[in-house]
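Data card: per-record layout.
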Amino acid sequence: MKKAFTLVEVNLAIFIMSVGVLSMCGLYALGYRENRQSVEDVASVSLADTYLAPLVQALSAMDMKWSQWESIDIEPNGGWEAYVQEEDGGKSYRVINNCNGIADSVFSTVAGKTPVGVSKPNLGDFKYGLVVTRNGSVIQLAFRVARRSQGLMSQPVSVIEVRYQGDPNENSSSGGAK
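The structure for this 178-residue chain is written out next.
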């Protein structure tokens, strides 16, 4: 009598192998999605730096006066809520079509209140949003960027704080920001 595998043993071995192969296929899809997200996150941070650097340069001008600094308090109609609109009776939100226009308007307003002229960089087809708030001597620039409008609010927020370094009580050109 020859020793051999029974049909039940063969089917059990095939079942165990198929579970392993299917698990690896699921991990491949997860890895692909995470890789794509990490590439977008790196691009987001790089583009945020490109967009925010001219504003930081303008706000850091040494001849920035306190009155100019004090006039910067821009939150486009409620911060990040300005970039979304309600649908279906308030149950779901979607990013508005003109998110870049709102951000560019905020950029121009802030840049127009500084003593240094700066120009807005072109981010191509990316969708982005900018929120600027001032709390005393600190201006906070918050920026998000994504490839698609739907991903804008799920992207991390890049935040830069710029502090006024001059004397708020004197309105001379000796004060600056850092």
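Known properties of this structure: The two ends are 89 Å apart (CA to CA). The longest helix spans residues 7-59.

See the next section for split statistics.
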